[in-house]
Amino acid sequence: MVMQIERELGKLWREKGPAWTSHHVQEALAKKELNVNDFSIRRLAENTIKDGYEWVASLDPTRRGGGMVVQEAIHAVDTSAMANITGQLVFSAIQDGMQLDELIGDTLVSDFPSNFQDDEKLPGISAVSDDFEDNVVQGEPYPPLGLSEEWVIIPAAEKKGGILGITREALIADRTGVLVERARSVGEALAIRRERSILDVVIGAVNPYNRKGEARLTYANAGMGFDNEGQAELINYTDLQEMAELFYAMRDPNTGEPLGHTPTTLVMGKGLEWTARAVIRDTLVELVDRAAAAGQVGSAGMNRIPWNLTIRSNEWVIERILAANGGPGGITAADRAAANDYWFLGKPTAAFVWKVIWPLTVTEAPNNSEVDFTQDVVMRFKASHKGVAGVREPRLMIRSDGTA
Length: 404
Prior knowledge:
- By secondary structure, the protein is of the alpha/beta class.
- The chain has a domain at 225-351 and 396-400.
- The chain contains 13 helices and 13 strands.
- It has helices spanning 5-16, 18-30, 41-48, 52-58, 80-98, 168-172, 176-203, 237-249, 270-281, 315-323, 336-340, 348-351, 370-375; strands at 110-113, 120-125, 149-154, 158-167, 210-211, 214-215, 229-230, 265-268, 310-313, 343-346, 352-364, 377-391, 397-400.
- The strands form four sheets. It has a five-stranded mixed sheet with strand order 7-13-10-8-9.
- Helix 3 packs across helix 4.
- It is elongated.
- Mean pLDDT is 83; it is low at 66-75.
């Protein structure tokens, strides 16, 4: 079946059209019914281009007899079918490359679709400032509620990407594996760059937080209007309790009311994860007879954490903490041990956003472009995404340097 894929796709392209065939390939790749390594770009060309066998042969003069010196350039060949299907393969390979096991950035932000390229005011309305103390008398009008404008600024988006080309030589030699591996490496590089961008914001190395026109640090003490920095070393549940006190002490800056959220996530480097998992998972509860005398009623346990926490950890957390040492974000970790002491508690998906201008996109270059003639690049694919990490509400994350 594998050897007939390209022939079947050529037949489908001619019978059902490009839209149906492209969707069919995309769906099959997404469901893992097809694998990018199952394809041959040479066989795709031979089966999806009109007179494809002759066209591929014409690319390799060594296979032609007669000692031809001057060969007419082929400008009218329609390679759109091959390029479209190959584009699906490239997209799938890049996506595969972006799925590194250790990436955590996507789980720490909520997507915020936007079409504003530059700094963007993210609007909102603050909570009402009235306390509803007065009773509304029957037949009397309800009192007006005081609303105040609330907004933060999300920074300008960054565009990342590159161009992959299939050369004449690669097509002749059928170097499909090289193309797939190169596409996967592009996906890996894009994913790592995105991971670092998100983590820089989450740990406070980069501080894009700007509320109502005032730029502030993401993690700060009371001098910045809130206190979300601690020094507790993560050893047992009492350290979580100490940090949770900071979390719950946060107040809405407009009303003074509690924020009403519960911590969901612990973020840290790989070294501290060993301890964190023990702190969260260790359970030893002693059951007692509640009907016994008052002096005998009680319980003993190692795990008293009142909420379920998810641990997010990877080596890039350590890398970014070390890179931020001594910078404006207030991180002081000159070595790996100090970087492993840092940990973060809160609800990151409510605290941080990823502004999406466009997600991963693969675009095909037009047929018979100039580089086809000047560089023997038969097909080109541009892979890119555009977005940026921003801070929506820093009061929903607490940072500890683990020094106390």
